[in-house]
Design a protein that fits this description.
By secondary structure, the chain is an alpha+beta fold. It has three helices and twelve strands.
Length: 222
């Protein structure tokens, strides 16, 4: 039984040796039929954006990959797969003021006031010089156009307060058309006036006769 076991083990080892020998022979045959192939690079990728947005001293980078690896003893790829370079994205730009706008209206309608105007700037970039000065400017202004008071014409006289005889009154008025403004002269005089009036022409004849002869009228009344 032991002899049989030893025999089987030896048989297995022998078969393994045969398999290994056959594999080595086939590998040597493949090596004899393989042509050397050199390594090949893909094209470089595009440069990356500069590491700064303005000024100088920035960095850009790009990379490439192997398209075909070396085979059968061919030469390997030479050179780096990654490289960098410096970049200068732009020059500095100084601040610039725009033109002044028109002066604003005076802050008062009469007398001494102030007026302002403004301007807009284009800001400096990339370390450029900033603008000096203010975006606003103020000055004094004077509106001296005085306006004097103006009265309208007198209206027509009103009707007499009595319809017959004397002792009545009439009135008429006028109004302020324009008021005094900015130190102008105020209106002088009244806006209403009165006068005496009579309406004898509209009285009955007997009344007119009695007024001319008051003594007779008294006697007749008695």
């Amino acid at each position: 039984m032991r002899a049989t076991l030893i025999f089987l083990v030896c048989l297995v080892v022998f078969e393994l040796l045969l398999v290994d020998a056959g594999f080595r022979v086939r590998r040597r045959r493949r090596r004899r039929s393989c042509s050397p192939g050199n390594c090949q690079w893909n094209s470089w990728q595009a440069w990356s954006s500069c590491s700064i947005t303005c000024g100088s001293g920035g960095i850009q980078s790009r990379s490439r990959t192997i398209r075909v690896h070396a085979s059968c003893g061919g030469g390997g790829c030479s050179g780096p797969s990654y490289e960098t370079r410096t970049c200068n994205p732009g020059n500095s730009v100084n601040c610039v003021w725009g033109n002044w706008q028109e002066w604003a209206a005076c802050s008062v309608t009469c007398g001494l006031g102030t007026s302002t105007r403004t301007r807009v700037k284009t800001s400096a970039v990339c370390g450029g010089t900033d603008c000096s000065g203010s975006p606003t400017e103020t000055r004094q202004c004077v509106d001296e156009d005085q306006v004097n008071c103006v009265l309208s014409d007198w209206q027509n006289w009103s009707s007499c307060s009595v319809t017959c005889g004397s002792g009545g009154t009439q009135s008429r008025t006028r109004s302020e058309v324009t008021s005094a403004f900015c130190g102008g002269t105020h209106c002088i005089g009244s806006s209403e006036e009165h006068r005496n009036c009579s309406n004898e022409d509209f009285c009955p004849d007997t009344f007119k006769h009695d007024e001319k002869n008051p003594e007779k009228s008294s006697v007749e009344d008695v």
